[in-house]
Amino acid sequence: MNQASNKGTAVVTGASTGIGALYAERLAERGYDVILVARNRERLDALAARLTDETGRSFEVVTADLGTTEGVRRVEDILRTDSSITMLVNNAGVGATATLADSDADKMDAMISLNVVALTRLTKAVVPGLIARGTGTIVNISSIVGVYPELLNGVYGGTKAFVLAFTQSLHHELKDKGVTVQAVLPGATSTEFWDIAGTAVEHLPASIVMSASDMVNAALAGLDQGELITIPSLPEQADWNVYEAARQTLAPNLSRDKPAARYGV
Ligand code: NAP
Q: Is 227 in the pocket of ligand 1 (CB under 6 A)?
């Protein structure tokens, strides 16, 4: 039985397996009750039963296909109306490894619906309540392809770049309202993601693949340390700071009344 104090309710999407299931476990250990969202009821029920035994917290299972309007609406309603919610982990997502030319357009469309549209709508649903209550946490699972889209399928990279940019903007909007925001950029993590994406994780060099447990533990440590952007693999935080400083250097000149001289206009 877990003795941690009650931290309210965390909603974790994509909680039936992989990174999301680990988040559910760690957050319960930290004192959250957890609403587990995914499509596979059998897996969600089994996880809820195990974690109830292990942590003594409360778990609610919500089956929803977040690739559909109906599924997203079901979770939006919960996020809007359950005032015990203090945390949202936007984790559900799919990837791909094929080039655009070799990809199925409908699958790319479905990926954007899940990785971008659902994540955006769920965030929009929870934010007003968190602002009103003056507290809360939103964790958005991006990916290192958000800053390095050349690595895998470009639509996948684009969706994760969206998650990163959206999180940076959310932080800007919410930082003075008591709401904490974090984007997590995992590198290759050992989950079923890779089978669904089209390349078995066993085909990757072991030296670049992290366990889901280590990844989530590091991401939560980053959250505890107040990081807006957490890259669990990155040895030197200073390297990210240089990248961010370069972005900030651009800021004063990104919008001007005349084209740059080199265009000769
Ligand atoms: P995973 O093991 O395949 O788990 C994905 C989770 O999302 C499952 O719980 C799945 O549950 C759920 N899901 C998939 N489609 C869904 C839908 N339409 N509606 C609702 N839930 C859905 O993958 P993972 O590695 O844990 O990935 C989690 C997140 O991490 C994703 O956003 C992924 O892009 C990101 N990420 C992963 C890696 C990696 O190398 N693994 C690296 C960087 C970022 P159901 O099938 O039961 O619905």
A: no
